[in-house]
Amino acid sequence: MEMTAQQLSQYNGTDPSKPIYVSVKGRVFDVTTGKSFYGPGGPYAMFAGKDASRALAKMSKSEEDITSSLDGLTEKEIGVLNDWETKFIAKYPVVATLLN
Fold first, then answer.
1. 100, pLDDT greater than 90
2. SS3 at position 30
3. How many domains does the chain fold into?
4. What is the Cα–Cα distance from 30 to 23, expressed in whole angstroms?
5. Among candidate residues 60, 59, 62, 64, the one with its CA nearest the CA of residue 79
6. Which UniProt keywords apply (predicted)?
7. Do the Cβ atoms of 3 and 96 come closer than 8 Å?
8. What residue ranges in the chain does DSSP mark as E strands?
9. For residue 15, which phi and psi values (nearest 5 degrees)?
10. What pTM did the predictor assign?
11. How far apart are CA 60 and CA 92, in angstroms?
12. What share of the chain is helix, strand, coil (3-state, %, to 5)?
C-alpha cells in the first residue's frame, strides 16, 4: 500500500478508532502498540502521523526537524537514523510506503 503525507497525517493518534502511524525513511510503521509513546500526551506524540526521519537522525523533537528531508545530515546522523530504522523494523509492522 502507498500513502501520501496528507493521508499519513490522519493517523496521528487523535482518533481512537484509527491506528497510529509514523514514517521512517519512507516506510510507514503501525506504532499503535507503542501508544504510550506516540499517542496524545506521549513523549513522541509529535511524530505521530508524520515522517520523523530527520528528527530521529538529529535526536530532535523540534517541529522544523519533523520531515522526511535528509539533506545536510552528517554521516553520524545518518547512522543514528539507520539504528532507529532497525529498531522500528524489529518492533512495528510496515503498513505502507510514503509517497513524496
1. no
2. strand
3. 1
4. 9
5. 59
6. Lipid-binding, Steroid-binding
7. yes
8. 2-3, 21-24, 27-30, 94-98
9. -105, 105
10. 0.95
11. 21
12. 40, 15, 45
Average pLDDT over residues 85-97: 98
The range of the structural domain enclosing residue 25 comes to 2-98
Q: Which amino acid, residue 50?
A: K
Asked if 41 contacts 22 with a C-beta cutoff of 8 angstroms, the reply is: no
CATH at 57: 3.10.120.10
21-24, strands of its sheet edge to edge: 2-3, 94-98, 27-30, 21-24
CA dihedral over 14, 36, 43, 91, signed as positive or negative: negative
Task: Please write down the HEC assignment for all residues of 38-57.
Answer: HCCCCCCHHHCCCECHHHHH
Residue type, 88: F
Residues 24 and 84 sit within 8 Å (Cβ to Cβ): yes
Residue 87 has pLDDT above 80, yes or no: yes
